[in-house]
Every structure is written in C-alpha cells, then in structure tokens.
Specification:
Aspartate Aminotransferase, domain 2; globular; 14 helices; 44% helix; Aspartate Aminotransferase, domain 1
Length: 389
C-alpha cells in the first residue's frame, strides 16, 4: 500500500524496453558521422525486416500523425477523389487530413465501436472509379475495433487506387502481410508496439505508391518522402534526426527480431483474449464488435462514469489506463496490450479492476476476473508445452 510502482497500460505511450531506455544514454553522437550512419542503415534494414516487407521503409521525426500527413501530401494532388473509412477519432483524423489538403473525400462512416465492412469499400470504389486512394485504420485505437485489412486490400489492389493504412497500433498487434496483401502505404509509430518513447513515425511505400509520388502536386517541404528516400540511401536522414530515439529503436528492433514479429503479435493477441475473458467474467460489456489486439475497450457499468475507474487506477495503484475519447469519454475505459507488456502485468491490472469496481459499489467476487485471465494463460502454456513435447 505504501510502495506504488507506475504501470503504463495505455495504447501509447507504452512501457519502455529497458535495453532501449539504457541505450538512449549513449546518444551523445553526431548524426553526420559514419558512426551514426552505420546505426541508421542498420535500423532501416531491421525496420523493413520486422515490418516484413521488401518495400522502402522510412523514418520521420514526428508522431504517427506526421506520417499520416506525409502520405497525403506526397502522393496526391488537389481535388483527387479518395475513400476514407471513419469509425472513430482516428478515422476522423484521416478525414480532417485529406480535407485540409483539398482532396475530395468519400467518407464511409460507422458508429463508434463498429468497423467498416470491406463490402462498403468495394461499393465505394465501384461508384467512384476515379478514386485515387483508400484510407483506413488497421486498429481504431479510440474504440478498440479492428478492420479487416486483408479483405480490403484484395479489393483495392484490383483498382488504380492505393491502399493507405494507419497501422500505428496495428503493427506488432495484428497480422499485416504488407507484400503478400499488397498494402501500399503502412504507417507506424515508435511509442506503440516498438516499446520506445514517442517521437518517431515509420512509413513503408510500395512501388505503386512511389509511382503516385511522381505526379503528386500537393506542396511538401519537411515531410518530403522522395528526399527522405534519397538521404536514407546514403545512411542519413534529410533533417536532424532524433538520435536518442534512433539508438533506442535499434535495441527495440533487435529485441523484436530475437523473439520474432509473429510472437510479438501473438503476445498482444493472447493478452487481448485474456482481457476480454476477464472483463466478461466480471459481467462487463465489450465496446467493439470486432475487437483489436492492441487495446480492449470496455463499457463502464451502468450508472458509473468510466472517468472514475480511470482515476481510481491512478490514485489507488499508480496505474494508467485510457478513458474514452470524444463522445465516448466517461462511457468506456481502454486497456492496452501492445509492446513490452506481459501476463503478470495483466494479472495485476485485472486484480486492480476488481478492487476498483468493488469500491465503486459494483458487485464483484474477488479473484473471478483474475482466474479467467489465468485460465487463458494456462491453456496457452499447456498448448505450447504440447507442441514442444
């Protein structure tokens, strides 16, 4: 009760990989030296390997939103028609970005907690054969919902449009076969499954996407992807890089490679499955109809403000979870599963939730939610042992 360790259970920033954190202390290095160029080349190569693509992968000094904006300003022209999937706060961000750049947006909307059906994308492209792009979130972090990226990709690649995916919380939490599915632009961020602080954005571009850059007429300066690609070929960034985060990323990528990207994804998916089992056992309701592996959104019990649950996590246990965003604030709370997060973290989080709900007057049988999480872990451990037997 008197010693309290902070536990970060939000969908970004996420808990930091200790080796990456320690590596940042050695960041007193000049970025225009061969020493740093070697680090940068290695990071770019490892990033491609971890993302599982032969496409170019670039790093920008920005939050993920910077790469979202870059994908628009570098690949499109004023008045281009595009299809935008909007099922939450980050879908709304896509709408705002494309409209800010003067694109003609056909918006496919869904209620918070819903996902956009691939059939709607197919219909929109059929009705708008001149559409130049389709924008979507792999994981809509604001609602905990996942989109069927593979099905959408199979539709988009039959057209002249490019498929642009905000995978900022999707990378490392759900399968994304960039080359196999034909994902033209995939965007990531450092503070999610990559286990380092905010400040770096990642973007991979297919040959089809690069062809769009040859005719794009929107202005760009700092986020100039062709310039960034040319600089990267020489082992440098176009502008001053965040050296400390690049060095941290080098360690994080080594760690991900050591366990395998598929295992990182499986870890998130298993934690998400266990979280869903725990909260359902406690009589709570999931918010998303197609839950993501990155974060679980849970409806607060009837008559209870989710803000109270979020505050109690922090005041009682120094744990940090996320409230709902926008119109969902006060209605849902969100528990993340991405990055440097394991089952003991989840055992603690679920036990904390039971105590918080009890303190708020919600009937709880202590240990019931935790036991559901333990069963998911135990079943997975038994299955793993059987495979290795």
């Amino acid at each position: 009760m008197y010693i309290r360790k902070t536990r970060l259970l939000t969908p970004g920033p996420t808990p930091l990989l200790p080796k990456a954190l320690h590596a940042m202390m050695g960041s007193d290095i000049h970025h225009r030296t061969e020493e740093f160029r070697n680090i940068y080349r290695t990071v770019l190569a490892d990033l491609k390997e971890v993302m599982g693509t032969s496409n170019d992968a670039l790093i920008l000094v920005a939050s993920g939103t910077g790469a979202m904006e870059a994908s628009v300003s570098n690949l499109f022209s004023p008045c281009d028609k595009v299809v935008v999937c909007c099922a939450g706060k980050f879908g709304e961000r896509w709408v705002e970005i494309v409209k800010a750049h003067g694109l003609d947006a056909v918006v496919l909307s869904a209620e918070y907690g819903e996902s956009i059906a691939p059939e709607r994308v197919e219909q929109a492209l059929r009705e708008n054969p001149n559409a130049r792009g389709v924008f979507v979130q792999a994981s809509e972090t604001s609602t905990g919902a996942a989109h069927d990226i593979q099905a959408m990709a199979s539709i988009v690649k039959k057209t002249d449009a490019i498929f642009v995916i905000d995978a900022i919380t999707g990378l490392g939490t759900q399968p994304l076969d960039i080359d196999g599915w034909g994902l033209d632009v995939v965007i990531g961020g450092s503070q999610k499954a990559f286990m380092i602080p905010p400040g770096l954005a990642f973007i991979s571009l297919s040959p089809k996407a690069w062809a769009f850059s040859e005719t794009a007429k929107l202005p760009r300066y700092y986020f100039n992807l062709k310039k960034e690609k040319k600089s990267a070929a020489g082992g440098e960034s176009s502008w001053t890089p965040n050296t400390s985060l690049i060095i941290a990323l080098a360690e994080a990528l080594k760690y991900i490679k050591s366990i395998g990207m598929d295992k990182l994804i499986a870890n998130a998916q298993m934690l998400a499955k266990a979280t869903r089992a725990g909260v359902l056992t406690l009589g709570l309701e999931l918010f998303a109809k197609h839950p993501a592996g990155s974060v679980t959104a849970v409806r607060a019990p009837k008559g209870m403000d989710s803000s109270a649950i979020v505050k109690e996590y922090h005041s009682r246990f120094a744990s940090v979870i996320a409230n709902g965003q926008g119109s969902m604030k006060g209605q849902i709370f969100r528990i993340a599963h991405l990055g440097y997060f394991d089952f003991p973290d989840l055992f603690a989080m679920m036990a904390e939730l039971e105590i918080i709900l009890h303190a708020q007057g919600y009937p709880v049988e202590f240990g019931k939610g935790v036991a559901a999480v333990q069963r998911v872990y135990a079943d997975a451990a038994v299955a793993k042992e059987a495979v290795h037997a």
